[in-house]
Amino acid sequence: MGALSHLRVLDLSRVLAGPWAGQILADLGAEVIKVERPGNGDDTRAWGPPFLKDAYGENTSEAAYYLSANRNKQSVTIDFTRPEGQQLVRELAAKSDILIENFKVGGLAAYGLDYESLKAINPKLIYCSITGFGQTGPYAKRAGYDFMIQGLGGLMSLTGRPEGDEGAGPVKVGVALTDILTGLYSTVAILAALAHRDQGGGGQHIDMALLDVQVACLANQAMNYLTTGVAPKRLGNAHPNIVPYQDFPTADGDFILTVGNDGQFRKFAQVAGQPQWADDPRFATNKLRVANRAVLIPLIRQATVFKTTAEWVAQLEQAGVPCGPINDLAQMFADPQVQARRLAIELPHALAGMVPQVASPIRLSETPVEYRSAPPLLGEHTLEVLQRVLGLDAGVVAGFKASGVL
Q: Does the keyword Transferase apply (predicted)?
């Protein structure tokens, strides 16, 4: 039994941040009921290509994007723009511990599905709202998408080649990182609210905003600005506070060197055949190396091109200097460490036979992550959930379906 197997989650969210939080809770054992629009469902079901292929190599209706964030859930289709659908969602919320939604601020109030309305029927409900900008402030009514938040929230000002370099300019991160981080923070907030409830408290409303999360995750770069008043600039793959800590060319490609302290720099200098660098008054400490970055980095680049990536990685690992290759995803999934940790898994799927998945990184010794089911087909569990959770008989469910409520 999973650590959260005693909990039921009503997941009204779609796209990524909310579904990511729901999938984490599901992986940890919670029963997660995903409520979707009849006919269309979660927007990401159509966000392809690529789509999952069946046994004959033909595309199914399941986009890879959707498959990334909806494992271990049950899909129920309910049209809650209609009174009958609203009542079904209220009844499910009354029997749930957690509700996740990412509608615009006030969007669910018109259907009687906002926090205050559901709190009245389930005071212990933990209600997590995920929006672009939060429930308050001048932007609260705006829609928010990851790419836009990466720009507005400062991340893109730090990502990309430095000014003056060829191809300079702001660049977004290659995955929807703000959505993912918001899903993670939302999960932490939900678990904190559960701990409060378990100590005798009631439920509560959680107000999560993509912009808040993006600003919080600027970490040392935000503090670099707040302590100096100077906005950090794009450095490409270089680090603002550590040198050398970036990519370098090799005889057959590139590798990443991440020197975290002066002892590691001394070891690197030995392997590079330049032991004098460690005692050079320009490079002896990290503070000096940061100040003299423009001198040191070209010297390192001149040295690294004489060995292959594999040679650098092998020799530096033996010396205790952190480094690594720059893998594409095929190389990454073929890496022996990734395979040893079983980060690629497969689950049985109704249309494709098996569906690939990326494993959860959470490893618990006593209550391990459970992989119970593949991301569900649209409405796959409508009848089963409404019968089991709400006690409706098949005839009533069939009537709702015939009228378009389900």
A: yes
Q: Looking at residues 19-43, what average pLDDT do you find? A: 97
- Rounded to a whole number of angstroms, the distance between the first and last alpha carbons of the chain is 31
Domains and CATH numbers, the chain: 8-217+341-402 (3.40.50.10540), 245-334 (3.30.1540.10)
Question: Which residues neighbour 389 within 8 Å (Cβ) at sequence distance 6 or greater?
Answer: 8, 33, 92, 95
Which pair of structure tokens corresponds to residue 234? 């794009």
Please list the active-site residues: 179
Buried b (16+ CB within 10 A) or exposed e, 281-308: eebeebebbbeebeebbeebeebbeebe
Give the model's pLDDT for residue 55: 86
The Cα 86–Cα 324 span in angstroms is 53
Distance CA 259, CA 265 (A): 6
Q: Dump pLDDT digits (tens) for 288-343.
A: 999 999 999 999 999 999 999 999 999 999 999 999 999 999 999 999 999 999 99
pTM of model > 0.90: yes
The CA distance from 205 to 165, in Å, is 47
